Amino acid sequence: MVNLVVKRRGREEPFAFEKVVVSVMKAGAPLEEARKVAKRVECRFLDQEKVSAKDLTKAILTELRKVNEEWYRNWIVFDRAVKRRETEKEMQE
User: I need a surface site. Which of 9, 43, 52, 79 has the fewest CB within 10 A?
Assistant: First the structure.
């Protein structure tokens, strides 16, 4: 099971399931849907000790897009406006 997230600048932090849940809720999902998305994401990395923040984001966005396109778009818009990231471009790399 994934225990560590390798952040974009190389720092490692413990994987926090609830942090994924909160992020998905900020994109517009209600609590129960956010937990389902987070669980599916967590299951993708069961055989890994570490995951990069970029791969984690890709997995979350893939699940969001499957469940609700609006939540996916909300995440993309937030990343562009607040974090100044081109997340969709990063997903294609």
Answer: 9
